[in-house]
Please model this.
Amino acid sequence: MIRTIMSQQEHHWARQALQRLEKEGLPPLPKFYEMFYIYYAGKNANLQMAIDTLAREFGSITMQQCENIYNAHLGIDNEHKALNDANTALEAELKKVMTMIDEASSGTKKFDATLTSFAGDLNQEKPQIDMLKIVVARVAQETKTMADQNKRLQERLKDSTDQISELRFNLDKTRQESLQDPLTEVGNRKFFDAEVERLVKEAATNGEPLSLCMIDIDFFKKFNDNYGHQVGDQVLKLVGRTLKENVKGRDVVARYGGEEFAVLLPQTRLEDAGRVANLLRISVGNKRITRKNTQETLGTITLSVGVTQYRIGETVGTMIERADTALYKAKGDGRNQVAMAVLPQ
Model:
């Protein structure tokens, strides 16, 4: 009886999820269905809050917003599962190799024992010709057996080595994908959080400067509404690609969220970071957006940028907040400009 009630409830959640996808005009992708199913099942409070907030602010939820919510609240669990699955498979193959090594060791010991036995037979005072023939035949047979065993072992080791190489490749690929924004192909928020912590520790230890640029695409929502989400995605890709093309060395580019990007500039002082930020702004502004199917020119896009430098002893959050404040100033002063944060004394 309990199982029947639960099945009806699960069916109800599934129907609600499909109806919501249709209402929002979203494609019935498995991950979007999963997200709304979990939403209606009440299994993730943070996910519910994120969806409700967007619905209140914008009235509807776009495909890109769904991607962001899924990656933020469900993507990490899937990444962990993929990594765990890959690690488990890798461990299984390594255990196979260890078993093969043990088998080879046992076979070698057995072969040594057999040879020792043969040596004992030959150490008799007057070994007979017949005895010598028997010993030689047995040595030949044991040698052939050992050679066959080693050949089989080599084949199995090669298979496992190939499998391990493939598993390592897939594991590295999964790790890399878990840190990359799938749309823009720059680092994602998870990647940024890890890199900013690492670079702040490095700057604090070495006493070298570290600067941060917080970047926002001006009037992105209006652009999205006027020309559609596909063109909006095209804009995000263009910005991500242009930012990557105009930084160098150890600089870090990441999509911070929505239409906001972040660039970390190690070994760069505030003044130099301001020049880099202006170069990024101009480089993006020089690009023209066109519809791919009609080649219609839709105009240009501009960036507002807030720049700050890390102060030794402060938290990462304090540095980001200061860069955000500068970004709001750039937007408030008319957009399409760079604002430098005032550093605390």
Summary: The chain has three domains: 2-61, 79-178, 189-340. The mean pLDDT is 80.
